[in-house]
Design a protein that fits this description.
Layout: E1 2-7, E2 11-17, E3 23-30, E4 34-37, E5 40-43, H1 45-63, E6 69-73, E7 79-81, E8 91-92, H2 100-109, H3 111-119, H4 128-138, H5 140-145, E9 148-150, H6 152-161, E10 166-167, H7 168-171, H8 184-189, E11 202-203, E12 208-210, H9 213-219, E13 226-229, H10 233-240, E14 249-253, E15 257-263, E16 275-278, E17 285-291, H11 295-304, H12 312-318, E18 327-329, E19 349-351, H13 359-381, E20 387-390, H14 397-407, E21 411-414, H15 419-432, H16 438-442, E22 444-448, H17 454-475
Parallel strand pairs: 1-6, 6-13, 10-11, 14-20
Antiparallel strand pairs: 1-2, 2-3, 4-5, 5-8, 7-9, 12-13, 14-15, 15-17, 16-17, 18-19, 21-22
């Protein structure tokens, strides 16, 4: 039996799997987002770490001792701890927008393009480099107190084992040299060479530590249990859904709309866009377009019209394809957009409203807008093969049909929903050298095919792209808060 831990943005889960990939049990606990000021989003690192020990303790109490625990988690943001792994401030979330002007200045100065030419990844307000640069200017003493500027899963690993380390997936962005190390060129361009000592050592494969006595006491796991860290949630979800062949891709309809495609080699040419992530497998990279327009945009809209997620299917049934003329640019994140373009000042907008527009029209328009954003991202990422879909939004059959129609292709759904935890366990098998049945662990159980509205959405996608182009011209004149 094996346990995968997935530390998300708003929920932490521990999932137990049998030797054949059967999901045996799951334990979850919510975590809070902190909003200290407009455009700023943080998390209490101590609370997040406590959530991990809590779910592990409860799950182990029911299913017993695993052979190992594998940990994945949200990417980006900045998690600052001292030499003992104790937080020196709240973690700054990947959704945070305080570094918007930093990113705008970098873009104007050519920094973004210079770094993209090194490692194929762009910068955005919630990226580790942008946040570190902001703190270096506004909170230098905080960075002085820290020993590590790490990532979520790495902080968990150090908390449970004492090991200070990261893996190639998280370190791919933003400082990678694409050869398994940190790039002096990227650090210099970003003005962060003097903070390079805060970056944890990169392990060529996933770091593996042994659970220490304090971790054993907190979790109920046996001391010495192997704790395998990484990859972080985007590559983990790809592996958990069997996305391993170049050209194949997946969409995670979650807090972010994470669109990603497997490639055989990194590409640092063309217009800077998206992220280039190591998967841990030789000759396999992810061209990732993790847009900021996921389920958070839909949740906000549902609250706005006084509805709940339970009413989504009914509302989509009340308003047909095209939402009775209402259209949406769903860029409602306070930190703007990061894929397939970067604009810290991107903002959402509704068009085509009349006094006859209904709440169902608004909800449908947002669902369609998010699906258009997915197509925009997948087109930019180079999708040519099959497409897997996961995430909380994939639980809505009606919304999945919109995605299939907008994308004009079949959608593969995994057998079990916890693909991040599943993927990090599957990846750990490679690390510890254990044989397993890949098809049994990562196969699909359902396919959603395009329906009758494909042609109508093809026209709608053209209008969507035109609206994005017009809006970007207006956003160029926006100012920071």
């Amino acid at each position: 039996m094996y346990i995968g831990v997935d530390v998300g943005t708003s929920i932490t889960k521990a999932v137990a799997f049998g030797a054949d990939g059967t999901q045996l049990d799951v334990q979850s606990v919510p975590t809070k987002l902190i909003h200290p000021a407009p455009g700023r989003i943080e998390q209490d690192t101590a609370e997040v770490l406590a959530s991990v020990t809590s779910v592990l303790s409860a799950l182990v109490g029911r299913v017993g001792q695993p052979e190992f625990v594998a940990v994945t988690g949200q990417g980006d943001g900045l998690w600052l701890v001292d030499a003992d792994g104790v937080p020196v401030r709240n973690a700054v979330s990947w959704m945070d927008g305080r570094a918007a002007q930093t990113v705008r200045d970098w873009t104007a100065a050519g920094v973004e393009e210079a770094v993209f030419r090194v490692n194929g990844s762009i910068q955005f307000p919630g990226s580790p480099a942008a946040i570190m640069s902001y703190l270096d200017e506004h909170e230098p003493s905080t960075l002085d107190r820290a020993a590590t500027a790490g990532y979520c899963k790495d902080v968990v690993l150090q908390h449970l084992t004492g090991l200070r380390a990261t893996d190639a997936s998280d370190s791919s962005m933003p400082y990678s040299d694409l050869n398994g190390g940190y790039s002096d060129v990227a650090l210099s361009a970003l003005g962060l060479t003097h903070r390079a000592g805060l970056l944890a050592p990169i392990h060529a494969h996933q770091p593996v530590g042994e659970l220490h006595a304090a971790g054993a006491s907190a979790t109920g796991l046996a001391a010495g249990t192997p704790i395998v860290s990484g990859p972080y949630d985007l590559p983990a979800c790809a592996r958990g859904t069997g996305v391993v062949t170049p050209g194949d891709g997946m969409v995670i309809i979650g807090t972010t709309l994470a669109c990603q495609v497997i490639t055989a080699s990194p590409d640092t040419s063309g217009t800077p866009a998206g992220l280039t992530l190591a998967t841990g497998a030789p000759g396999r990279w992810l061209r990732a377009m993790p847009a900021m327009v996921g389920t958070a945009s839909l949740d906000w809209t549902l609250r706005l019209v006084g509805a709940s997620t339970g009413s989504l299917a009914g509302m989509l049934g009340e308003s047909g394809a095209g939402a009775n003329g209402v259209s949406v640019l769903p860029y409602f994140s306070p930190s703007g957009e990061r894929a397939p373009f970067v604009d810290p000042f991107a903002r959402g907008q509704f068009s085509g409203l009349t006094v006859q527009s209904t709440p169902a029209d608004l909800v449908r328009a947002v669902c369609e807008g998010i699906a258009y954003a997915a197509r925009h991202c997948l087109d930019a990422a180079g999708l040519t093969g099959s497409l897997a879909v996961a995430g909380g939004g994939a639980r809505s059959a009606a919304w999945l049909q919109i995605f299939a129609d907008v994308l004009g292709r079949e959608l593969r759904l995994p057998r079990c929903s916890e693909v991040g935890a599943r993927g990090v366990v599957v990846n750990a098998f490679d690390v510890v050298g254990r044989a397993f049945d890949e098809a049994a662990w990562t196969g699909s159980e359902l396919v959603v095919s395009p329906g009758r509205d494909v042609e109508r959405y093809e026209e709608g996608y053209g209008r969507y792209l035109a609206q994005v182009g017009s809006a970007r011209a207006a956003w160029a004149d926006a100012t920071v808060w």
